[in-house]
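Why GTP-binding protein? Reviewers of the renewal asked for a concrete example.
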Amino acid sequence: MPVPVLLVTGFLGAGKTTVINHLLTNAAGKRLAAVVNDFGAINIDAELLAGSADGVVALQNGCICCTLQGDLLRTLSLLLRQEPPPEGIVIETSGVSDPAEVVRSLLDPVIWREAALDAVLCVADARALTDRPPLLEDALLLSQLRSGDFILLNKADTVTAEELAALRTRLFALLPARTVLEAVQGAIPAGLFFADEPPEAPDRAVPVVSRFSTPGFESLSWTADRRLSLPRFQMAVSRLAPRLARAKGILRFEGQEKPMLFQMVGERATFGAAPPSPSGSAMVRLVFIAENGRLQADMVRAMLEECVA
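Here is what the prediction returned.
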């Protein structure tokens, strides 16, 4: 199974490094690696550093930092050869770069087999966007925002509730399909990135909605012991997508022998080879994550039941 990759983008001074530091120091035991490009530097507190050599910095919690030097594939290969390999990789783009090219590189099938793009997080400075509304017309910033599956309004404590609401309204008008988060000092919500999926629903073909570990979000689990119709599933997901922050699951489709790993974030949905399933697992296991109040269990169940072959 490929190692999930989180791409962090955003304008200069938005707080990308602070966000990555927060991820690394709150990894809940996971081994995370961070890759930063030539324009950036990741300022990790000295007490976290365990040592460095040849551009690679090993941290006490198993994290690794290195500098991205043009060859993304070679850099990722270096990280994946570590023993043990990382369980997640964070890549930070420069504040003056368009992340679209990095996204295209990460979607290359050769890279995808080993390090799959899980999500793109665009960090934005809430204070700067409030003080300078024309920033949202800047071509580079717009490209960064459009590349993001999630938009993080960092420094949310520096604006009023009214200013934050107005900023959310403007972003929704520009990018209605994005999930907008808020943070203070880069403290992103836990559970959306590099997290194990919520527990499987206890009853077959019954959706279970529960509050997610991240405040403001909820998850819905659904399982079935029969294969799904791929065309009907794709149609259902396209209808559900505007409500979701992300979705993932192990699926089996009629006419296909092997199970598939399904992942969706923002407007991007992917299928890949599924890892081995635990003994006794349901044939189909799905998890949806959305902002509180957007998941309607009865509606979701009806749509998914229609997908059963």
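Residues 254 and 299 are 23 Å apart (CA to CA). This is the kind of structural detail the renewal will allow us to pursue systematically.
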